Amino acid sequence: MLLETIFSFMFLYVLSYSQKNDIIITGPGLNPIEIVMPARYFFINFTHINSQSYTPKLNKELVVEINGRSSDGKHCRVWVNKLDRKDGTFIVRYKIYETCSDLSIHVYYGKKEVAKSPYKFKGTIYADQCNCPEHQFQKWFKNYGCKDTYGQIKKDLKPFHNINMKEELQSIIKKYHQPESTSFCHYAIKQNKLYRNCYGKHVGFNMFSDNILLSLMRKVKLPDMDLVINLGDWPLVHRKDKPLPIFSWCGSDETYDIVMPTYDLTESALENMGRVTLDTLSVQSGAEIVWKEREPRAVWRGRDSRAERLKLIDIARANPDLFNASLTNFFFFRDKEAQYGPKQPHISFFKFFDFKYQINVDGTVAAYRMPYLLSGGGMILKQQSPYYEHFYSQLVPWEHFVPVRRDLSDLVDRVKWARDNDDKAQQIAVNARNFANNNLLPQNVICYHAALFWEWSKIIKSEVNIEENMAHVPQPSVTCNCKPEKPNTHEDL
């Protein structure tokens, strides 16, 4: 009897040990003191589970609790959100609404704590709205988990040396101040305060550039600098002209514009668990159907912003067994609505992943949906294009997406290839999501902006002066208990 009891105890111990070590928990949300974000996040990976053996029971048995103390000694307000990727992995997001201390993260499976749970943090945990910047940029950059180098940043900044922004700004205003067609803002950062003056008729999109600059400045003291940000989609500085320094959300093979993450991707990073419902985290749990059960057709919805989109409708109508494609609005080709309509209602972006293949065709410039398509777990058919976002140079054809000619002449053949090579198509989809998780999540978006502005500040030789026509852009009015500032040490720029 004693021997049976010992064997029974040993079996339970081995089972418990195996369970704890069969689950891997990683991600920036496990470093909440150093990595401040609107919504922190981490990943839970049941290593013995895959999409073929996944069951909904896994989701029910997995419980995450996050607790901490507020400044008055009560429980600090924390909102926890669990995202099931339906392949044996989960994303946990949590939003902190006030300064917290003694934060603890408990991860339970089957009512038992797993991996290294509980995770306990004794330091101060700031909410994202707290204006408590680290004064040493390089220290913050390293502790935030940012990459050392970005090839696109080096390429974009290569034409610029020893910039006198007073002179460059006058050249930019003279050439591009055309109120009806272009809009841009001149920003100045001085002693970690933000000022701007905007030019043009349509300047409402300055909210996006305001928000990322203010967000960064709450986290780290940025060096003094001037910069000009284009508020339109089209890159401005043609390569036949002098390379004037303008930051844009989209680049092209024919322009010198310095490319930032798009306003759409940036907003989704900064409004995570806020006013946006589509972001590179949430889209990973939005697909309700696993790969093997999805329709083997290519899906697309969008407006008529390019002639190739009309051609896509022709192709889809000729091959209904291969495509599900419709126009949702007519603006550029209203005279052809009778031919290519009627326009169809929008569908949830998550419903795109009821299909195995998603089509990405340019709009007026690059289609800004690419980060979400990469994250969603489908195989992307991407049109060749002179336009690009900040990360396109890192993508590899046939590894992260399937290339399609500019005129879509091989689109049908590409879909047929995917049908005939299902394992390869699925692997491309997996590679795409892995790329998104390594390069396009909120931490990556914040890091890219920080690296870009840091490197830009090294190029400017002129002193930053706040002109009379510049408005101060204030930080949100939030009371936070910031840690005492340490003496600032010199950093080489």
TrEMBL record:
It is found in: Endoplasmic reticulum lumen. It catalyses: L-seryl-[EGF-like domain protein] + UDP-alpha-D-xylose = 3-O-(beta-D-xylosyl)-L-seryl-[EGF-like domain protein] + UDP + H(+); L-seryl-[EGF-like domain protein] + UDP-alpha-D-glucose = 3-O-(beta-D-glucosyl)-L-seryl-[EGF-like domain protein] + UDP + H(+). InterPro entries: CAP10, Filamin/ABP280_repeat-like, Ig-like_fold, Ig_E-set, O-Glucosyltr/Glycosyltrsf_90. Pfam families: Filamin (PF00630), Glyco_transf_90 (PF05686). Keywords: Endoplasmic reticulum, Glycoprotein, Glycosyltransferase, Signal, Transferase. Residues 1-18 form the signal peptide. GO terms for cellular component: endoplasmic reticulum lumen. Filamin repeats lie at residues 15-123. GO terms for molecular function: glucosyltransferase activity. Pathway: Protein modification. The keyword Glycoprotein applies. Residues 221-463 form the Glycosyl transferase CAP10 domain. It comes from the Eukaryota. Protein O-glucosyltransferase. Catalyzes the reaction that attaches glucose through an O-glycosidic linkage to a conserved serine residue found in the consensus sequence C-X-S-X-[PA]-C in epidermal growth factor-like repeats. Regulates Notch signaling by glucosylating Notch in the ER, glucosylation is required for the correct folding and cleavage of Notch. Belongs to the KDELC family. This is Glycosyl transferase CAP10 domain-containing protein. It comes from Spodoptera littoralis.
